[in-house]
## 1
Amino acid sequence: MIYLSCPDITDKEKRAVLEVLDSGMLASGPKVREFEERFAEYTDTSHAVCVSNGTTALHVSLLASGIKRDDKVLTTPFSFIATSNSILFCNAQPLFADINPITFNLDPNKVEDILKKEQNIKAIILVHLYGFPCEMDAFSYLAEKYNVKIIEDSAQAVGAEYNNRKAGSFGIAGTFSFYATKNMMTGEGGMITSSDESFVQKVRSLINHGRSGRFLHSELGYNFRMTDIQAALGIVQLSRLEEFITKRQQNADFYDKNLADLDWIKLPVTYLGHKHVYHQYTVRVKSEIRDAFVKYMNDKGVNVAPIYPISITQQPFYKAMDSFDCPQAVKISSQVVCLPVHTKLSQDDLEKIVKIIKGFKK
Ligand SMILES: *Cc1c(COP(=O)(O)O)cnc(C)c1O
């Protein structure tokens, strides 16, 4: 079986974890601080804060941005459900703008249509889906014009760049996930990046029970901390990230070249000034054949998946909330198929995958 994702662990990661276990300091300590410093440096932001996962990173970023009950937060219907759930955790109201079907990301024009119409939108959560950065010039302009904060859900986009600036360095916050299937991983884990000093102070308080001193708690907070075990793993993964990205890009190039002549598959695009880190290599086929194609590939031993097969606006409990009109997201969710693009694929694997795809009888 060729899997859709595969963690890339070497002896270096194993030694780093064992060192922490031997140190007797397992909770949030020196390794967490070192991981934060290195991550801030990598993303060219002033601060990074380790948290327990990508979902808590989003939740706390909204809270620290001042989002409260009944505020409106705009986001994409085509993402992992954690993106919009984080808005509900704050008792705020999620609004959805439609996506651009070519980039899979939020369409700035659709976002502006809603910003014009709706009062009281306080923030936008952008998602750099599959590792492809959003149109940040357009969104930075909108943020300024309509006075809304930007949070970049960069869970799939660690290392991605827009005009030579890293994903997670544009908004008031960038949020990251180090879940086991992500481009760099710590099993479970997350990070918040920001260059706003008071925002970061608020985040540090909220993830640690609102603590402001020894045995002193000034506000209601949570336990969203990371352990030194995870941080030690993360430090090594971060040191290998450029190697991971290069391998993913080479795999994507192979597909680009070897699938180009198939007229029934649309390949993903990338644009000048966008550094795509290929968390997923996502193709589109006609809705009528999508599920048959997924089944065929899995039966042949190649794990592919329709990510995401249901837009968030079509999920039962969101559907019950409101009637959100995002036809592109609904259509695209019936067409997408993610092919394996991870770092452990061999040349043989890639050739085998292409050969099997070419053998699909529509
Ligand atoms: C993985 C992911 C999350 C959630 O991260 P967890 O670490 O699993 O909580 C949020 N948004 C997107 C786009 C993701 O891919």
## 2
Amino acid sequence: MSIATIEISISALQHNVNVFRKLSPASQIMAIVKANAYSHGKNAIASTLDRVVDYFGVARLEEGIELRKIGIESPIVLLEGFFRHDDPRQLVDYNLQTVIHCIEQIEKLQATDLSANSLDVWFKLDSGMHRLGFRPEQTNAYFQQLVDLDCVKKPINIISHFSSADELNSAQTLHQIATFDAFINSIADQSLLGKQSIAASGGILAWPMSHRDVIRPGIALYGVSPFSYNESNKATAADLGLKSVMTFKSEIITVREHKKGESLGYGLIWQAERDTRLAVVAMGYGDGYPRDILANTPVSINHRLVPIVGRVAMDMMLVDLGPTATDKAGDEVIFWGNDALPVEKIADHSGMSAYELLTRLTERAKLRYVD
Ligand SMILES: *Cc1c(COP(=O)(O)O)cnc(C)c1O
């Protein structure tokens, strides 16, 4: 019954790309389209930005292959590289660039017969996140092993990732940049060094010295702030000059009278303090809307904010329209994505990050592209 819609504004997407070009005119852009482009539809986003941006970044080999199969021509980088079960020959067959972050990957390349200079790689330095990448004291030996591999194209690109770029007062980011630069300076033959890339959305917006050759916007590309939104920071991506790409919406199924003192929904967790009118809305956790949302979280109906009441169910939620409301079945309901209702705010109400809120939208919510 749900008619949940993920509406995607192509012009907002293009606006955000232009913001990054102005913020960092000397850098190339790697648009991150992993996790189905944060639920914005990987194939459509990549088709729109193909040869507009300089690279695409994905998390899995399958995502890269799919982009090639639909005809994407820009360079594509596997941010986590190929996995144990992947065949590195597919990287060459589909013209995919890979991050190299661990010894198992180097060994697999050594054991695979690939033609000379056939593979573009990004050597990943663990500059302090301690997730993927070579530790600073290991880097020179492993970098040399990559240099010695015939199949690896030279120069070799260098990539790293920040753990805390969203913490504006943290010394960690400066420490990571210093570690990155120490590695760069430690390479005797500088002609072996290709492009440098460190900054994702947080680095792009808060740490200009990290921009380097290639910036990697993910969440900010979609017009959402990477910084947490809370009582002490109410800045959204709009305050940073970005435009929200997604509007998440549905419609009213029916409007009903509700009497003072009556409770409603599963568990009857909300009780009306006055006679009122309720909207039954076609949206639930089966579409990806969080079930555990704070009481009184608003939705937008006919240009005003009205509260969700009771428990969000799989396919429906209830909204208190107020006693004098004139809203009717079929009217549009917006859950996030307009200026009054940024996704950052709903994330704060849900106890989740905006990243999680976006990526957990389900297949039942249908993508639609406008302007
Ligand atoms: C996901 C990811 C990004 C994008 O991160 P945002 O915070 O969404 O901008 C960039 N680089 C790497 C390596 C990633 O995994």
## 3
Amino acid sequence: MKFYNINERNEQVTFSQAITKGMGINQGLYFPKDLLKLSSFEINDLLSMNFIERSVYILSAYIGDEMSKDSILSCVNNAFNFSVPLVFIHENIAILELFHGPTLAFKDFGSRLMAQFLCKIRKNYNKPMVILTATSGDTGAAVAHAFYRLPNIYVIILYPKGKISVLQEKLFCTLGNNVFTVSVEGDFDICQNLVKQAFLDHELQNILDLNSANSINISRVLGQICYYFEAVSQLPLDIQKRKLVISVPSGNFGNLTAGLFAQSLGLPVKKFIVATNLNNTVPRFLQYGDWNPLPTVATFSNAMDVSCPNNWPRIEELFRRENKSFTELGYGFVNDICTKETIQTLVMNLGYVVDPHTSVAYRLLYDQLCDDEFGICLGTAHPAKFKELIEFFLEGNMQIILPRVLKDRMELPILSYKTSKCFSELRSLILKLIF
Ligand SMILES: *Cc1c(COP(=O)(O)O)cnc(C)c1O
């Protein structure tokens, strides 16, 4: 299938081009040309398959003309090699735990699949492929682990020195091998600026095959469609027949975009709830109809501190093409006090610990769910990633145990390089690391 640029509709590219370019001219996002629909027979068939088999089927529907089933299967097998349990915590609510991958957050799905695809479709072996990306903490970890030990690909991740937590730093700066991490004298914007300068450097472009692997890449969205089907497949048949509401903790809206694609394919979901923190551009837009981003504010659910969500144009495009109205979306936002209280209440009443992002989505789902509906809340991060904060909320009544992967990493030394905010210094470092 071809993919077109939302901002320049005449620009149409193959999947291989879309995944390597990331974005089209005029900063446009790529969008699938055909709106695929599966019959209810096919959907039932899909729901009886296992996660891997079903994911290959779904992805083949989009990219099967460019990649063989066997190639897609090998990518899916390597990328989705961890469990996705649906945990029933309440008579009418379950949490889809998307945080059992190597960096304990749902971004592992999209990043790992993208890494596998890039490795497979890569044609240019004359230049070393370098994934260059800036992170404020979590996305860098997902990218580093996704590309870790993949042959002939180097990863360079910039992060602001002293501005990420020890846990975050240990998670991706201890890998070594083909993953190079660089702590930058400056904040996240400076890191992003350095990456931008590298992409504008023609000489670098001539000798390196640079890719940013960032979150607007269409391959990530396609990968995330798969776990929505997995959620429904794990529901007992009597519950599958009930009206299903899915609440999505949202920041850049890649996760919700994937859910809406799943629904558009034919997955029986009655309603999605757009759940944000105080960075509530979209809930305010859905309520009042004006798009009015305010300055970003810091919250407990910091991966959702986004006021201009970069995947939103894809959602508008999907609704336009489907002739659907935004009135079918549920929405809401939750402040920090309420995020904290929800974590406390869930532990007290149900003995289940959620991280602050999942807490936001759970709260809105709980408040808005009707009697005849069944609710699924996406669990986007493992609570252990927020160990100190959550233990503080729980006033010493509970200790969060670090999963093995994290505990082992905590023992390892940080391998990061250092650089100032000066681009020429970073440039020499990159050349030294790769050649
Ligand atoms: C990135 C992230 C989100 C937001 O996801 P989007 O796809 O950007 O909307 C939510 N929760 C966690 C833990 C995240 O890391």
## 4
Amino acid sequence: MNYTFFTVGPSQLFPTVSKHMKNAIKDNIPSISHRGEQFKNIYKETQDSLRKLMDIPKNWHIFFISSGLEAMERIIQNSVAKSSLHFINGAFSKKFCDFSKKLKKHPYKIETDENKQFDYNSVKIPKDVELICITQNETSTGTIFPMDEIYKIKDKNPDKLIAIDIVSSAPYVKINWLKIDAAFFSVQKGFGLPAGLCVLLVNEKIIDKSKELDYKGYNIGTFHSFISLLDKETNYQNPETPNILFIYLLGQVCRDFLKIGIEKIRKDTEKKAELIYDFFKKHKIYEPYVKNADIRSMTTITIDVRGRSKEIIRRLAEKGIIAGSGYGTNKDRHIRIANFPAHRLTDVKKLLKYLR
Ligand SMILES: *Cc1c(COP(=O)(O)O)cnc(C)c1O
């Protein structure tokens, strides 16, 4: 059967991926040397397309690593001597914090209920915090941290570094790169690719911090320390043999996104999200889990289905639609619906038709 995946990651492949995969095999991309000119061109082209698509400044570095979780670990290792601070409202933000602790740092926590917003105005950042970690789109609950609130935190704390997890909101989320210092996303969500590649974006300030930590004798890691990544990036390479095929595929999909236009992708995302939220706002039994519309995710939508998730997922599967269950302890209580560029309006309409 031909399935459409509305799961939040891995998810539906972007429709052009299979064509690009065939071309990659035809052109021997999986066999080329990771030190040769052909690979360097691929690396550079993917960087260039990403920069255009997400409006990333020239002086930002674009590193390729293996996963979103790896990005969390690398960022903490390379920018924190002692203290990080974490806004926690779900499983992924909690993981970021746990990693800081496991790396023997001292994480501060600011917590809120899963589907509520933080009390932004009363937030106090302790003096010794070096890095503030924010999960911009908390996939476990479908809640966003509004970018404007992140910018206000930066304005009030210009001396602190800010890292944002945009794993499940890129490339939809619009970013003012002057107001953050690091961001990361893996490609199996909004980019509609197979899992196994993550893009880590960092500015000069956080690179300098990493060099300072290294100089002072802190452990900043080995082959994926920012110093090592930077050293190779200068020559359009990775320290290790990277996932050459996926770096190529990411570049191709970025080009496809550029052809469609990022503003159209954003508008379409909002239109599809509105359809889904409207449907559930009017539903007699089910309702959006996040009540406050200001912090509802446009890209990963969580619906409280009163414990009926298993049955709904089973019945949708019979129709060729794969929906996501709730996260962790909410497995049976919620369904989660991804709304990425790979999901067409007609797919969303079909999903809602069967849910009716
Ligand atoms: C999926 C996800 C991650 C983890 O990414 P991996 O590539 O699986 O390591 C981290 N943060 C958020 C918000 C996610 O949705």
